[in-house]
User: What shape does this take?
Amino acid sequence: MFEWFSVLVGEFGKEVALVTAVVYGGYKFRRIQSILGGVVGAIGTAATFGALTVGALVLGMATGWISVDAGQMLGDIVSGAGTAWDIIGQDAVEWLTTEVL
Assistant: This one.
């Protein structure tokens, strides 16, 4: 895993190899931090829209304006979450593990 470090030490010396490793590690940390920040923001946005939708449905059902089968609604939400994971989640996790880490 760290063959590149020993190659740098052999070519340029330990000091240059250490500086390169620190700079590269900082770059990777900032990249991971940026990606995780985007993921957390996307999850927060989706959760906000979900809460607003569910709140509107509950309010509509309580006032009698909307008639919704709660079991069917939950089944659709679970099905949609599974589909979203199949389409986006697995590819995102695979990309993160191969490209970022």
Residues 6 and 12 are 10 Å apart (CA to CA).
